[in-house]
Specification:
Helix content: over 70%
Number of strands: 0
Shape: flat
Order of helices and strands: HHH
Radius of gyration: 14 Å
Strand content: under 5%
Number of domains: 1
Structural class: mainly alpha
Length: about 60
Amino acid sequence: MALSLSVVVLLAIILVVLFRGGSIKPGPAVVAILFGFFLASTDIAPTVNNFLNSLAEMISKISF
């Protein structure tokens, strides 16, 4: 749960920065938000979630 919330906050910050910087217009920003919202309710959502969890676990095992 903590990881999911962190990813959501990170992506929200990136979206706001792109929006405020003029890199993304309001229309495409709304489309991106709606795409993520509807993607979460599809059958592929658990696969994406498992992939992101595996990726986060792999990154956490890397020592610097």
